Amino acid sequence: MSAVKIIEDDSLRVTPSGFEIKVRYRWYRTLPLSCMEYLELAVDGEPVDRECIRFAINGKSYELHEMADLVEEYWFILDAATLQVELPGRIRPGQPHRLDLSLGMRAPYIRTGPGRFLTIINRYSTTQVAA
Fold first, then answer.
1. What is the pLDDT of residues 103-119, one digit of tens each?
2. CA distances in angstroms from 49 to 28, 39, 58, 68, 78, listed in the order given
3. What's the order of all strands across the beta sheet hosting 18-23?
4. CA angle 26, 27, 31 (to 5 degrees)
5. What residue spans define the domains of the chain?
6. Rounded distance, CA 89 to CA 52, Å?
7. What does R_g of the chain's alpha carbons equal in angstroms?
8. Where are the beta strands (DSSP E) in the chain?
9. What is the DSSP secondary structure assignment for residue 11, as one 8-state letter?
């Protein structure tokens, strides 16, 4: 059995405002978007500013700072989300780029201490040619 990749193969796409990639999280259970503890993306070794990233799922798009309030919006385990990154010209079609993603999701039903809960940490690196 192969491991689930948190960045889908061949998902790097150039857009008019920058680029996008398809992402997933590895866990056995659907979680609300409010459970996202952190998301860090680097391209070719350069960290991407969180202010440049939007998280799109279920036909909607959110800024990362909005995620904490999304208690009724769910990320279903079979669905890919799209990271929309506003950095025009950063990614060029036909060129390979290294993508490094760290994603932390809180499991609100697994307590690890007073007011603390398990955070599922997913990390993945890949090199993709931009379409």
1. 999 999 999 999 899 99
2. 29, 11, 24, 18, 27
3. 13-15, 18-23, 81-85, 53-57, 60-63
4. 115
5. 13-129
6. 13
7. 15
8. 13-15, 18-23, 31-32, 36-43, 46-47, 53-57, 60-63, 74-75, 81-85, 96-113, 116-129
9. -
d(CA 98, CA 64): 22
Tell me the one-letter amino acid at 9: D
Q: How confident is the model at residue 96 (pLDDT cuts 50, 70, 90)?
A: very high
* Tokens at 50, concatenated: 């969180």
Q: How many residues does the chain have?
A: 131
Look up residue 107 and give its two tokens. Answer: 């499991």
The whole-number average pLDDT for the span 56-68 is 96
Is residue 48 within 8 Å of residue 41, measured between CB atoms?
A: yes
- Beta carbons of 12 and 21 less than 8 angstroms apart: yes
- What single letter denotes the amino acid at residue 76? F
As a whole number of angstroms, the distance between CA 14 and CA 93 comes to: 6
Joined tokens for residue 75: 């990320």
| pLDDT score of 1 | 37
- Tokens (6 digits) for 68: 């904490």
Beta bridge partners of 98: 127
